[in-house]
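>> Question from a student workshop board

For tomorrow's exercise we were told to take the sequence and the ligand below, predict the bound structure, and bring the output to class. My setup keeps failing. Could a helper post the expected result so I can at least see what it should look like? The ligand is adenosine-5'-diphosphate.
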Amino acid sequence: MKKTPRVLVVEDDNQQARFIQLILTKYTPPFDVQLANDGPVAVELASKEKYDVITLDYNLPSMTGLQVLEQLKKLDIQAPIIMVTGQGDEKIAVQALRNGALDYITKSKEQLNLLPRVLLRAIRENNLAKQLEQSRKRYFDLFHNAVIAIFVVDAETLEIQQMNQSAESLLGISVEEGRQKAFFNLVSPDQQAVIESFFKNIKDSGRATIENLHLLHRDKRVVPTDVSGNLVKSGEQEFVELFVTDIRDKLKMHRQLQLSQQRLLSLFNGITDMICVLDSNYKLLMGNKRYLEFTGNTGKSLMRKQCYETLFARTSPCENCPAFETYKTGESHFIEVYHENRIYQIWTFPMRDLEGRPDFIVEYTKDVTEHKEMEQQLIKAEKLASVGLLSSGIAHELRNPLNIIETARYAIEAELGHSNPEVDKRLKLIKSSIQRSSAIIDNLLQFSRHSKFAKEKVDVAALIKSTMSLLYKEITQQKIQPLLALGDTPRAYINVDSLKQVFLNIIHNAVQAMPNGGELRVRTYTSEDKKSVIVEFKDNGVGIAEEHLQHLFTPFFTTKGPTSGTGLGLYLSYTLVKREGGDIQVRSAVGEGATFTVILPAVAE
Ligand code: ADP
Ligand code: MG
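>> Workshop helper replied:
Here is what the output should look like for this input. Compare the format with yours to find the bug.
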Protein backbone atom coordinates (compact mmCIF):
# COMPACT_ATOMS: atom_id res chain seq x y z
CA MET A 1 0.00 0.00 0.00
CA LYS A 2 1.51 3.27 -1.11
CA LYS A 3 0.87 6.17 1.19
CA THR A 4 0.27 9.67 -0.08
CA PRO A 5 3.57 11.56 -0.22
CA ARG A 6 3.64 14.58 2.09
CA VAL A 7 5.37 17.64 0.82
CA LEU A 8 6.21 20.95 2.54
CA VAL A 9 6.29 23.77 0.03
CA VAL A 10 8.17 26.82 1.28
CA GLU A 11 7.12 29.75 -0.94
CA ASP A 12 6.29 33.36 -0.01
CA ASP A 13 4.67 34.27 -3.35
CA ASN A 14 0.99 33.38 -2.95
CA GLN A 15 0.30 32.85 -6.62
CA GLN A 16 3.34 30.73 -7.09
CA ALA A 17 2.42 28.68 -4.03
CA ARG A 18 -1.14 28.08 -5.33
CA PHE A 19 0.23 27.03 -8.68
CA ILE A 20 2.62 24.53 -7.19
CA GLN A 21 -0.11 23.20 -4.89
CA LEU A 22 -2.41 22.74 -7.88
CA ILE A 23 0.17 20.84 -9.86
CA LEU A 24 0.93 18.58 -6.94
CA THR A 25 -2.63 17.83 -5.85
CA LYS A 26 -3.78 17.09 -9.40
CA TYR A 27 -0.98 14.66 -9.96
CA THR A 28 -1.56 10.93 -9.79
CA PRO A 29 -0.85 9.93 -7.16
CA PRO A 30 -1.75 13.25 -5.56
CA PHE A 31 0.52 14.84 -2.97
CA ASP A 32 -0.51 15.99 0.46
CA VAL A 33 0.71 19.60 0.32
CA GLN A 34 1.55 21.86 3.26
CA LEU A 35 2.44 25.48 2.53
CA ALA A 36 4.84 27.70 4.47
CA ASN A 37 5.31 31.35 3.45
CA ASP A 38 8.51 32.09 5.35
CA GLY A 39 11.68 30.53 6.75
CA PRO A 40 10.82 30.38 10.50
CA VAL A 41 7.39 28.84 9.82
CA ALA A 42 9.04 26.27 7.55
CA VAL A 43 11.63 25.39 10.16
CA GLU A 44 8.98 25.04 12.85
CA LEU A 45 6.72 22.87 10.70
CA ALA A 46 9.61 20.68 9.53
CA SER A 47 10.75 20.09 13.08
CA LYS A 48 7.23 19.11 14.26
CA GLU A 49 5.80 17.23 11.33
CA LYS A 50 7.18 14.49 9.17
CA TYR A 51 7.48 15.24 5.47
CA ASP A 52 8.63 13.01 2.70
CA VAL A 53 10.12 15.93 0.78
CA ILE A 54 10.56 19.72 1.12
CA THR A 55 10.75 22.33 -1.68
CA LEU A 56 12.55 25.47 -0.67
CA ASP A 57 12.26 28.87 -2.40
CA TYR A 58 15.42 30.93 -2.32
CA ASN A 59 13.90 34.34 -1.84
CA LEU A 60 11.96 34.50 1.41
CA PRO A 61 10.92 37.55 3.43
CA SER A 62 13.00 37.15 6.61
CA MET A 63 15.76 34.75 5.58
CA THR A 64 17.26 33.23 2.44
CA GLY A 65 16.59 29.65 1.32
CA LEU A 66 20.22 28.82 2.06
CA GLN A 67 19.78 29.93 5.67
CA VAL A 68 16.64 27.81 6.02
CA LEU A 69 18.52 24.88 4.52
CA GLU A 70 21.28 25.35 7.07
CA GLN A 71 18.81 25.35 9.96
CA LEU A 72 16.97 22.30 8.65
CA LYS A 73 20.25 20.40 8.36
CA LYS A 74 21.16 21.42 11.90
CA LEU A 75 17.85 19.95 13.08
CA ASP A 76 18.80 16.76 11.25
CA ILE A 77 15.66 16.79 9.15
CA GLN A 78 15.70 13.58 7.14
CA ALA A 79 13.37 14.64 4.29
CA PRO A 80 15.17 15.42 1.03
CA ILE A 81 15.21 19.11 0.16
CA ILE A 82 14.71 20.48 -3.37
CA MET A 83 15.92 24.01 -3.92
CA VAL A 84 13.70 26.23 -6.15
CA THR A 85 15.68 29.10 -7.68
CA GLY A 86 15.06 31.86 -10.19
CA GLN A 87 16.52 31.47 -13.61
CA GLY A 88 20.21 32.30 -13.79
CA ASP A 89 20.79 31.56 -10.09
CA GLU A 90 22.88 28.47 -10.76
CA LYS A 91 25.53 29.58 -8.31
CA ILE A 92 23.02 29.48 -5.50
CA ALA A 93 21.89 26.09 -6.69
CA VAL A 94 25.44 24.75 -6.52
CA GLN A 95 25.87 26.19 -3.05
CA ALA A 96 22.61 24.56 -1.95
CA LEU A 97 23.68 21.18 -3.28
CA ARG A 98 26.93 21.50 -1.37
CA ASN A 99 25.05 22.30 1.79
CA GLY A 100 22.95 19.20 1.59
CA ALA A 101 20.06 19.88 -0.80
CA LEU A 102 19.29 16.85 -2.93
CA ASP A 103 18.40 18.63 -6.15
CA TYR A 104 17.24 21.93 -7.57
CA ILE A 105 14.85 23.24 -10.20
CA THR A 106 14.31 26.66 -11.70
CA LYS A 107 11.05 28.51 -11.59
CA SER A 108 10.19 28.19 -15.31
CA LYS A 109 6.76 26.83 -16.17
CA GLU A 110 8.16 23.74 -17.89
CA GLN A 111 10.36 22.94 -14.93
CA LEU A 112 7.54 23.42 -12.47
CA ASN A 113 5.40 21.01 -14.45
CA LEU A 114 8.11 18.45 -13.88
CA LEU A 115 8.07 19.09 -10.12
CA PRO A 116 5.92 16.08 -9.08
CA ARG A 117 8.26 13.71 -10.83
CA VAL A 118 11.31 15.42 -9.39
CA LEU A 119 9.82 15.14 -5.94
CA LEU A 120 8.88 11.51 -6.34
CA ARG A 121 12.35 10.69 -7.51
CA ALA A 122 13.82 12.61 -4.60
CA ILE A 123 11.67 10.62 -2.16
CA ARG A 124 12.72 7.37 -3.79
CA GLU A 125 16.38 8.26 -3.76
CA ASN A 126 16.19 9.37 -0.18
CA ASN A 127 14.54 6.10 0.85
CA LEU A 128 17.17 4.11 -0.96
CA ALA A 129 19.94 6.10 0.68
CA LYS A 130 18.34 5.50 4.06
CA GLN A 131 18.08 1.77 3.47
CA LEU A 132 21.65 1.67 2.30
CA GLU A 133 22.77 3.50 5.36
CA GLN A 134 20.81 1.12 7.56
CA SER A 135 22.25 -2.00 6.00
CA ARG A 136 25.70 -0.48 6.13
CA LYS A 137 25.19 0.08 9.82
CA ARG A 138 23.86 -3.43 10.28
CA TYR A 139 26.85 -4.88 8.52
CA PHE A 140 29.13 -2.75 10.61
CA ASP A 141 27.49 -3.90 13.86
CA LEU A 142 27.58 -7.48 12.75
CA PHE A 143 31.23 -7.22 11.87
CA HIS A 144 32.27 -5.46 15.03
CA ASN A 145 30.23 -7.36 17.55
CA ALA A 146 30.64 -10.81 16.03
CA VAL A 147 31.83 -13.42 18.52
CA ILE A 148 33.96 -14.93 15.82
CA ALA A 149 37.15 -13.04 14.98
CA ILE A 150 37.07 -11.48 11.51
CA PHE A 151 39.95 -10.06 9.51
CA VAL A 152 39.62 -8.33 6.14
CA VAL A 153 42.88 -8.41 4.18
CA ASP A 154 43.89 -7.04 0.83
CA ALA A 155 43.90 -9.98 -1.59
CA GLU A 156 47.05 -8.74 -3.31
CA THR A 157 49.30 -7.61 -0.48
CA LEU A 158 47.59 -9.63 2.31
CA GLU A 159 47.80 -6.51 4.43
CA ILE A 160 45.16 -6.29 7.12
CA GLN A 161 42.53 -3.68 6.26
CA GLN A 162 40.02 -4.26 8.98
CA MET A 163 39.58 -6.45 12.02
CA ASN A 164 36.78 -6.69 14.57
CA GLN A 165 36.81 -6.59 18.38
CA SER A 166 36.96 -10.37 18.72
CA ALA A 167 40.01 -10.38 16.46
CA GLU A 168 41.60 -7.70 18.62
CA SER A 169 41.10 -9.62 21.83
CA LEU A 170 42.03 -12.97 20.27
CA LEU A 171 45.54 -11.79 19.43
CA GLY A 172 45.87 -8.91 21.91
CA ILE A 173 46.49 -6.29 19.23
CA SER A 174 44.50 -3.18 18.28
CA VAL A 175 43.07 -2.47 14.84
CA GLU A 176 45.75 0.21 14.34
CA GLU A 177 48.55 -2.24 15.12
CA GLY A 178 46.89 -4.85 12.93
CA ARG A 179 46.67 -2.49 9.98
CA GLN A 180 50.44 -2.24 9.91
CA LYS A 181 50.86 -5.96 9.36
CA ALA A 182 50.30 -8.50 6.64
CA PHE A 183 48.23 -11.46 7.80
CA PHE A 184 51.07 -13.96 7.55
CA ASN A 185 52.99 -11.92 10.14
CA LEU A 186 50.40 -13.22 12.61
CA VAL A 187 51.01 -16.85 11.68
CA SER A 188 53.60 -19.01 13.44
CA PRO A 189 56.84 -19.33 11.39
CA ASP A 190 56.51 -23.08 10.88
CA GLN A 191 53.16 -22.66 9.13
CA GLN A 192 54.13 -20.05 6.53
CA ALA A 193 53.95 -22.54 3.69
CA VAL A 194 50.52 -23.65 4.87
CA ILE A 195 49.11 -20.14 4.97
CA GLU A 196 50.61 -19.35 1.59
CA SER A 197 48.83 -22.23 -0.09
CA PHE A 198 45.66 -21.34 1.83
CA PHE A 199 45.58 -17.86 0.26
CA LYS A 200 46.39 -19.31 -3.11
CA ASN A 201 43.38 -21.63 -2.80
CA ILE A 202 41.15 -18.70 -1.94
CA LYS A 203 42.29 -16.76 -4.97
CA ASP A 204 41.84 -19.79 -7.23
CA SER A 205 38.51 -21.03 -6.00
CA GLY A 206 36.97 -18.17 -4.06
CA ARG A 207 37.06 -19.90 -0.67
CA ALA A 208 39.15 -22.21 1.50
CA THR A 209 39.39 -23.50 5.05
CA ILE A 210 42.32 -24.43 7.23
CA GLU A 211 42.35 -26.37 10.49
CA ASN A 212 44.61 -25.88 13.46
CA LEU A 213 46.37 -22.78 12.18
CA HIS A 214 48.71 -21.41 14.82
CA LEU A 215 48.32 -17.64 15.19
CA LEU A 216 50.63 -15.62 17.38
CA HIS A 217 49.32 -13.61 20.30
CA ARG A 218 51.03 -10.30 21.07
CA ASP A 219 52.67 -12.05 24.10
CA LYS A 220 54.16 -14.73 21.76
CA ARG A 221 51.73 -17.39 22.89
CA VAL A 222 50.44 -19.66 20.12
CA VAL A 223 46.67 -19.55 19.58
CA PRO A 224 45.36 -22.60 17.71
CA THR A 225 42.51 -21.68 15.36
CA ASP A 226 40.28 -22.92 12.56
CA VAL A 227 40.09 -20.40 9.70
CA SER A 228 37.79 -20.07 6.71
CA GLY A 229 38.28 -17.42 4.03
CA ASN A 230 36.20 -15.92 1.21
CA LEU A 231 37.25 -13.75 -1.66
CA VAL A 232 35.10 -10.57 -1.90
CA LYS A 233 35.18 -7.96 -4.66
CA SER A 234 34.61 -4.31 -3.95
CA GLY A 235 34.79 -2.37 -7.19
CA GLU A 236 38.21 -2.95 -8.66
CA GLN A 237 39.73 -4.20 -5.43
CA GLU A 238 39.69 -7.74 -4.07
CA PHE A 239 39.64 -8.57 -0.39
CA VAL A 240 39.77 -11.73 1.61
CA GLU A 241 37.44 -12.08 4.59
CA LEU A 242 38.89 -14.39 7.18
CA PHE A 243 36.69 -15.96 9.87
CA VAL A 244 38.84 -17.22 12.72
CA THR A 245 37.61 -19.58 15.48
CA ASP A 246 39.59 -20.07 18.66
CA ILE A 247 39.87 -23.85 19.12
CA ARG A 248 41.74 -23.97 22.42
CA ASP A 249 38.71 -25.25 24.31
CA LYS A 250 37.88 -27.65 21.54
CA LEU A 251 41.45 -29.02 21.60
CA LYS A 252 41.43 -29.28 25.35
CA MET A 253 38.17 -31.19 25.29
CA HIS A 254 39.42 -33.38 22.50
CA ARG A 255 42.55 -34.18 24.46
CA GLN A 256 40.55 -35.00 27.57
CA LEU A 257 38.31 -37.23 25.55
CA GLN A 258 41.30 -38.98 24.06
CA LEU A 259 42.84 -39.41 27.47
CA SER A 260 39.76 -40.95 29.01
CA GLN A 261 39.38 -43.14 25.95
CA GLN A 262 43.00 -44.20 26.33
CA ARG A 263 42.48 -45.01 30.00
CA LEU A 264 39.38 -47.03 29.30
CA LEU A 265 41.15 -48.91 26.55
CA SER A 266 44.13 -49.85 28.70
CA LEU A 267 41.72 -50.96 31.39
CA PHE A 268 39.86 -53.01 28.80
CA ASN A 269 43.05 -54.55 27.48
CA GLY A 270 44.57 -55.03 30.92
CA ILE A 271 41.83 -57.41 31.95
CA THR A 272 43.17 -60.93 31.64
CA ASP A 273 39.83 -62.53 30.88
CA MET A 274 38.21 -62.20 27.49
CA ILE A 275 35.86 -59.31 26.86
CA CYS A 276 34.07 -58.46 23.65
CA VAL A 277 31.20 -56.27 22.53
CA LEU A 278 28.48 -57.60 20.19
CA ASP A 279 25.52 -56.19 18.38
CA SER A 280 22.10 -57.85 18.17
CA ASN A 281 23.25 -60.13 15.33
CA TYR A 282 26.10 -61.57 17.42
CA LYS A 283 28.48 -59.51 15.27
CA LEU A 284 31.65 -58.57 17.08
CA LEU A 285 32.40 -54.87 17.39
CA MET A 286 35.49 -55.03 19.55
CA GLY A 287 37.47 -57.35 21.75
CA ASN A 288 40.17 -56.81 24.34
CA LYS A 289 43.78 -57.93 23.91
CA ARG A 290 43.19 -61.31 25.56
CA TYR A 291 40.16 -61.92 23.37
CA LEU A 292 42.12 -61.18 20.20
CA GLU A 293 45.02 -63.37 21.33
CA PHE A 294 42.77 -66.25 22.25
CA THR A 295 40.74 -66.16 19.08
CA GLY A 296 43.77 -65.45 16.88
CA ASN A 297 42.23 -62.29 15.49
CA THR A 298 43.23 -58.73 14.88
CA GLY A 299 40.83 -55.93 15.70
CA LYS A 300 39.94 -55.67 12.03
CA SER A 301 39.43 -59.33 11.21
CA LEU A 302 37.24 -59.61 14.30
CA MET A 303 34.68 -57.15 12.94
CA ARG A 304 33.57 -59.45 10.18
CA LYS A 305 32.83 -62.38 12.48
CA GLN A 306 30.24 -63.67 14.88
CA CYS A 307 31.04 -64.44 18.51
CA TYR A 308 30.11 -68.12 18.29
CA GLU A 309 32.41 -68.48 15.29
CA THR A 310 35.49 -66.92 16.87
CA LEU A 311 35.13 -68.58 20.26
CA PHE A 312 33.77 -72.03 19.50
CA ALA A 313 34.09 -72.40 15.70
CA ARG A 314 30.32 -72.84 15.47
CA THR A 315 28.09 -71.88 12.57
CA SER A 316 25.09 -70.99 14.71
CA PRO A 317 24.59 -69.39 18.13
CA CYS A 318 25.08 -71.58 21.21
CA GLU A 319 22.03 -73.07 22.89
CA ASN A 320 20.99 -70.85 25.83
CA CYS A 321 23.04 -67.99 24.38
CA PRO A 322 23.27 -65.52 27.26
CA ALA A 323 23.72 -62.56 24.86
CA PHE A 324 20.36 -63.37 23.30
CA GLU A 325 18.78 -63.58 26.77
CA THR A 326 20.30 -60.26 27.74
CA TYR A 327 18.91 -58.64 24.59
CA LYS A 328 15.49 -60.03 25.32
CA THR A 329 15.34 -59.20 29.00
CA GLY A 330 17.81 -56.35 29.36
CA GLU A 331 19.38 -58.20 32.27
CA SER A 332 22.77 -59.83 32.69
CA HIS A 333 23.06 -63.57 32.11
CA PHE A 334 25.47 -66.40 32.77
CA ILE A 335 26.22 -69.81 31.31
CA GLU A 336 28.94 -72.42 31.55
CA VAL A 337 30.15 -73.88 28.25
CA TYR A 338 32.22 -77.06 27.69
CA HIS A 339 34.38 -76.83 24.61
CA GLU A 340 37.34 -79.02 23.64
CA ASN A 341 37.89 -80.30 27.17
CA ARG A 342 37.81 -76.85 28.66
CA ILE A 343 35.22 -75.09 30.76
CA TYR A 344 34.23 -71.47 30.06
CA GLN A 345 32.00 -69.25 32.09
CA ILE A 346 30.30 -66.53 30.07
CA TRP A 347 28.58 -63.49 31.51
CA THR A 348 26.69 -61.02 29.37
CA PHE A 349 25.75 -57.48 30.30
CA PRO A 350 23.61 -54.96 28.44
CA MET A 351 25.21 -51.78 27.10
CA ARG A 352 22.26 -49.41 27.01
CA ASP A 353 21.42 -46.55 24.66
CA LEU A 354 20.21 -43.16 25.93
CA GLU A 355 16.65 -44.48 26.20
CA GLY A 356 17.86 -47.33 28.39
CA ARG A 357 17.31 -50.10 25.84
CA PRO A 358 20.07 -52.69 25.43
CA ASP A 359 21.99 -51.47 22.41
CA PHE A 360 25.05 -53.69 22.54
CA ILE A 361 26.09 -56.63 24.67
CA VAL A 362 29.28 -56.92 26.65
CA GLU A 363 30.38 -60.53 26.84
CA TYR A 364 32.82 -61.55 29.54
CA THR A 365 34.37 -64.98 29.07
CA LYS A 366 36.54 -66.72 31.62
CA ASP A 367 38.39 -70.01 31.15
CA VAL A 368 37.75 -71.75 34.47
CA THR A 369 39.19 -75.17 33.62
CA GLU A 370 42.22 -74.92 35.93
CA HIS A 371 40.17 -73.29 38.61
CA LYS A 372 37.63 -76.08 38.52
CA GLU A 373 40.30 -78.76 38.44
CA MET A 374 42.06 -77.23 41.37
CA GLU A 375 38.81 -77.03 43.24
CA GLN A 376 38.14 -80.68 42.53
CA GLN A 377 41.66 -81.72 43.51
CA LEU A 378 41.41 -79.81 46.69
CA ILE A 379 38.20 -81.56 47.57
CA LYS A 380 39.79 -84.90 46.65
CA ALA A 381 42.97 -84.27 48.61
CA GLU A 382 41.03 -83.25 51.67
CA LYS A 383 38.79 -86.24 51.37
CA LEU A 384 41.77 -88.56 50.98
CA ALA A 385 43.63 -87.06 53.87
CA SER A 386 40.72 -87.40 56.25
CA VAL A 387 39.94 -90.91 55.08
CA GLY A 388 43.61 -91.79 55.52
CA LEU A 389 43.75 -90.42 59.01
CA LEU A 390 40.58 -92.12 60.04
CA SER A 391 41.49 -95.48 58.62
CA SER A 392 45.02 -95.53 59.99
CA GLY A 393 43.53 -94.81 63.40
CA ILE A 394 41.15 -97.71 63.03
CA ALA A 395 43.93 -99.91 61.62
CA HIS A 396 46.00 -99.31 64.69
CA GLU A 397 43.11 -100.25 66.95
CA LEU A 398 42.44 -103.43 64.93
CA ARG A 399 45.94 -104.76 65.25
CA ASN A 400 45.56 -106.00 68.83
CA PRO A 401 42.24 -107.80 68.40
CA LEU A 402 43.66 -109.31 65.19
CA ASN A 403 46.65 -110.61 67.14
CA ILE A 404 44.31 -112.07 69.73
CA ILE A 405 42.25 -113.76 67.02
CA GLU A 406 45.40 -115.18 65.41
CA THR A 407 46.67 -116.47 68.79
CA ALA A 408 43.29 -118.08 69.47
CA ARG A 409 43.20 -119.60 65.99
CA TYR A 410 46.68 -120.99 66.51
CA ALA A 411 45.64 -122.57 69.83
CA ILE A 412 42.55 -124.12 68.26
CA GLU A 413 44.60 -125.47 65.37
CA ALA A 414 47.08 -127.02 67.77
CA GLU A 415 44.26 -128.56 69.79
CA LEU A 416 41.90 -129.91 67.12
CA GLY A 417 43.00 -128.80 63.74
CA HIS A 418 44.60 -131.79 62.13
CA SER A 419 42.12 -134.35 63.54
CA ASN A 420 39.08 -132.87 61.85
CA PRO A 421 39.40 -131.88 58.15
CA GLU A 422 36.23 -129.74 58.36
CA VAL A 423 37.65 -127.67 61.23
CA ASP A 424 40.98 -127.60 59.49
CA LYS A 425 39.41 -126.04 56.38
CA ARG A 426 37.64 -123.33 58.43
CA LEU A 427 40.82 -122.54 60.34
CA LYS A 428 42.69 -122.06 57.06
CA LEU A 429 39.98 -119.62 55.95
CA ILE A 430 40.36 -117.71 59.21
CA LYS A 431 44.11 -117.64 58.71
CA SER A 432 43.98 -116.20 55.19
CA SER A 433 41.42 -113.61 56.28
CA ILE A 434 43.67 -112.58 59.15
CA GLN A 435 46.56 -112.25 56.72
CA ARG A 436 44.55 -110.11 54.36
CA SER A 437 43.36 -107.91 57.22
CA SER A 438 46.90 -107.66 58.41
CA ALA A 439 48.05 -106.55 54.93
CA ILE A 440 45.41 -103.85 54.87
CA ILE A 441 46.45 -102.67 58.30
CA ASP A 442 50.10 -102.56 57.23
CA ASN A 443 49.23 -100.52 54.20
CA LEU A 444 47.12 -98.09 56.13
CA LEU A 445 49.71 -97.65 58.80
CA GLN A 446 52.22 -96.61 56.20
CA PHE A 447 50.20 -93.44 55.83
CA SER A 448 50.96 -92.30 59.34
CA ARG A 449 54.40 -93.91 59.43
CA HIS A 450 55.68 -92.09 56.33
CA SER A 451 54.67 -88.73 57.61
CA LYS A 452 57.46 -89.00 60.16
CA PHE A 453 60.29 -89.50 57.71
CA ALA A 454 62.45 -86.65 56.58
CA LYS A 455 63.09 -85.68 52.97
CA GLU A 456 66.38 -86.29 51.24
CA LYS A 457 68.01 -86.11 47.82
CA VAL A 458 67.05 -89.30 46.05
CA ASP A 459 68.70 -90.80 42.99
CA VAL A 460 65.52 -91.73 41.21
CA ALA A 461 67.16 -94.00 38.61
CA ALA A 462 68.90 -96.09 41.25
CA LEU A 463 65.72 -96.36 43.27
CA ILE A 464 63.77 -97.59 40.24
CA LYS A 465 66.39 -100.27 39.58
CA SER A 466 66.43 -101.49 43.17
CA THR A 467 62.63 -101.57 43.33
CA MET A 468 62.50 -103.56 40.10
CA SER A 469 64.84 -106.10 41.55
CA LEU A 470 62.44 -106.68 44.45
CA LEU A 471 59.86 -107.88 41.93
CA TYR A 472 62.38 -109.80 39.87
CA LYS A 473 60.68 -113.15 40.51
CA GLU A 474 57.22 -112.08 39.24
CA ILE A 475 58.68 -110.21 36.31
CA THR A 476 60.62 -113.15 34.97
CA GLN A 477 57.90 -115.70 35.75
CA GLN A 478 55.33 -113.68 33.76
CA LYS A 479 57.73 -113.13 30.88
CA ILE A 480 57.63 -109.38 31.25
CA GLN A 481 60.32 -107.43 29.48
CA PRO A 482 61.50 -104.40 31.45
CA LEU A 483 62.77 -101.58 29.19
CA LEU A 484 64.51 -98.87 31.17
CA ALA A 485 65.40 -95.46 29.74
CA LEU A 486 66.64 -93.67 32.82
CA GLY A 487 67.88 -90.31 31.57
CA ASP A 488 70.39 -88.13 33.27
CA THR A 489 67.95 -86.36 35.57
CA PRO A 490 68.61 -84.30 38.68
CA ARG A 491 67.83 -85.97 41.97
CA ALA A 492 64.40 -85.67 43.55
CA TYR A 493 63.90 -84.12 46.94
CA ILE A 494 61.56 -86.51 48.70
CA ASN A 495 61.25 -89.15 51.41
CA VAL A 496 62.99 -92.23 50.04
CA ASP A 497 60.80 -94.85 51.76
CA SER A 498 57.62 -93.21 50.52
CA LEU A 499 58.99 -93.09 47.01
CA LYS A 500 60.05 -96.74 47.13
CA GLN A 501 56.51 -97.62 48.22
CA VAL A 502 55.06 -95.61 45.33
CA PHE A 503 57.29 -97.25 42.71
CA LEU A 504 56.61 -100.67 44.17
CA ASN A 505 52.84 -100.16 44.00
CA ILE A 506 52.91 -98.92 40.42
CA ILE A 507 55.25 -101.61 39.14
CA HIS A 508 53.32 -104.29 41.00
CA ASN A 509 50.07 -103.09 39.38
CA ALA A 510 51.72 -103.15 35.96
CA VAL A 511 52.93 -106.69 36.52
CA GLN A 512 49.47 -107.76 37.60
CA ALA A 513 48.00 -106.10 34.50
CA MET A 514 50.18 -108.26 32.20
CA PRO A 515 49.41 -111.86 33.21
CA ASN A 516 50.42 -113.08 29.75
CA GLY A 517 53.61 -111.11 29.51
CA GLY A 518 54.39 -107.79 27.89
CA GLU A 519 56.65 -104.79 28.12
CA LEU A 520 57.16 -102.43 30.99
CA ARG A 521 58.84 -99.23 29.83
CA VAL A 522 60.20 -96.93 32.49
CA ARG A 523 61.48 -93.56 31.41
CA THR A 524 62.78 -90.56 33.39
CA TYR A 525 63.24 -86.99 32.23
CA THR A 526 63.25 -83.41 33.49
CA SER A 527 60.35 -81.01 33.05
CA GLU A 528 60.80 -78.02 30.77
CA ASP A 529 61.10 -75.59 33.65
CA LYS A 530 63.69 -77.94 35.24
CA LYS A 531 61.71 -77.97 38.46
CA SER A 532 60.44 -81.54 38.30
CA VAL A 533 61.77 -85.03 37.75
CA ILE A 534 59.26 -87.04 35.78
CA VAL A 535 59.02 -90.84 35.88
CA GLU A 536 56.82 -92.61 33.37
CA PHE A 537 55.70 -96.26 33.79
CA LYS A 538 54.17 -97.56 30.59
CA ASP A 539 52.81 -101.10 30.31
CA ASN A 540 50.93 -102.82 27.52
CA GLY A 541 48.62 -104.77 29.79
CA VAL A 542 44.85 -104.97 30.04
CA GLY A 543 44.32 -101.22 30.41
CA ILE A 544 41.73 -99.40 32.48
CA ALA A 545 38.09 -98.79 31.63
CA GLU A 546 37.17 -95.16 31.32
CA GLU A 547 34.59 -95.31 34.11
CA HIS A 548 37.28 -96.69 36.46
CA LEU A 549 39.82 -93.95 35.77
CA GLN A 550 38.28 -91.44 38.12
CA HIS A 551 38.16 -93.97 41.01
CA LEU A 552 41.73 -95.27 40.81
CA PHE A 553 42.99 -93.19 43.69
CA THR A 554 40.01 -93.79 45.92
CA PRO A 555 40.83 -95.99 48.93
CA PHE A 556 39.69 -99.61 48.61
CA PHE A 557 38.93 -99.29 44.93
CA THR A 558 40.07 -102.52 43.30
CA THR A 559 39.09 -104.62 40.32
CA LYS A 560 41.08 -107.56 41.64
CA GLY A 561 39.70 -110.42 43.65
CA PRO A 562 39.76 -110.23 47.46
CA THR A 563 42.96 -112.27 47.64
CA SER A 564 45.09 -110.23 45.27
CA GLY A 565 44.00 -106.61 45.77
CA THR A 566 43.37 -104.28 48.68
CA GLY A 567 42.61 -101.17 46.60
CA LEU A 568 45.02 -99.19 48.71
CA GLY A 569 48.16 -99.14 46.52
CA LEU A 570 47.32 -96.17 44.32
CA TYR A 571 45.49 -94.33 47.04
CA LEU A 572 48.54 -94.48 49.26
CA SER A 573 50.93 -93.66 46.45
CA TYR A 574 48.90 -90.65 45.41
CA THR A 575 48.61 -89.35 48.94
CA LEU A 576 52.34 -89.75 49.60
CA VAL A 577 53.43 -88.07 46.37
CA LYS A 578 50.97 -85.22 46.83
CA ARG A 579 52.25 -84.70 50.32
CA GLU A 580 55.76 -84.30 48.93
CA GLY A 581 54.60 -81.67 46.46
CA GLY A 582 54.42 -83.98 43.44
CA ASP A 583 51.64 -85.54 41.39
CA ILE A 584 50.55 -88.78 39.71
CA GLN A 585 48.72 -88.79 36.37
CA VAL A 586 47.20 -91.71 34.44
CA ARG A 587 46.47 -92.28 30.78
CA SER A 588 44.86 -95.50 29.68
CA ALA A 589 42.26 -97.23 27.57
CA VAL A 590 40.99 -100.80 27.73
CA GLY A 591 43.31 -103.17 25.84
CA GLU A 592 45.92 -100.51 25.27
CA GLY A 593 47.86 -100.71 28.50
CA ALA A 594 48.30 -97.91 31.02
CA THR A 595 50.78 -95.13 31.59
CA PHE A 596 51.37 -93.80 35.09
CA THR A 597 53.36 -90.58 35.27
CA VAL A 598 54.91 -89.60 38.59
CA ILE A 599 56.01 -85.99 38.91
CA LEU A 600 58.52 -85.26 41.68
CA PRO A 601 60.12 -82.08 42.93
CA ALA A 602 63.70 -81.89 41.62
CA VAL A 603 66.66 -80.79 43.71
CA ALA A 604 67.63 -77.33 42.53
CA GLU A 605 71.02 -77.43 40.80
P1 ADP B 1 44.90 -102.96 43.89
O1 ADP B 1 46.10 -103.17 43.06
O2 ADP B 1 45.02 -103.53 45.25
O3 ADP B 1 43.63 -103.37 43.19
P2 ADP B 1 45.52 -100.27 43.49
O4 ADP B 1 45.10 -99.04 44.19
O5 ADP B 1 46.94 -100.51 43.35
O6 ADP B 1 44.74 -101.45 44.18
O7 ADP B 1 44.90 -100.23 42.06
C1 ADP B 1 43.54 -99.93 41.92
C2 ADP B 1 43.03 -100.47 40.61
O8 ADP B 1 43.61 -99.76 39.54
C3 ADP B 1 43.38 -101.89 40.32
O9 ADP B 1 42.49 -102.77 40.91
C4 ADP B 1 43.30 -101.90 38.80
O10 ADP B 1 41.97 -102.10 38.38
C5 ADP B 1 43.70 -100.56 38.39
N1 ADP B 1 45.08 -100.49 37.91
C6 ADP B 1 46.13 -99.96 38.57
N2 ADP B 1 47.24 -100.06 37.82
C7 ADP B 1 46.89 -100.65 36.65
C8 ADP B 1 47.59 -101.00 35.43
N3 ADP B 1 48.92 -100.78 35.28
N4 ADP B 1 46.88 -101.56 34.43
C9 ADP B 1 45.57 -101.79 34.59
N5 ADP B 1 44.83 -101.48 35.68
C10 ADP B 1 45.51 -100.93 36.73
MG1 MG C 1 47.96 -102.48 43.61
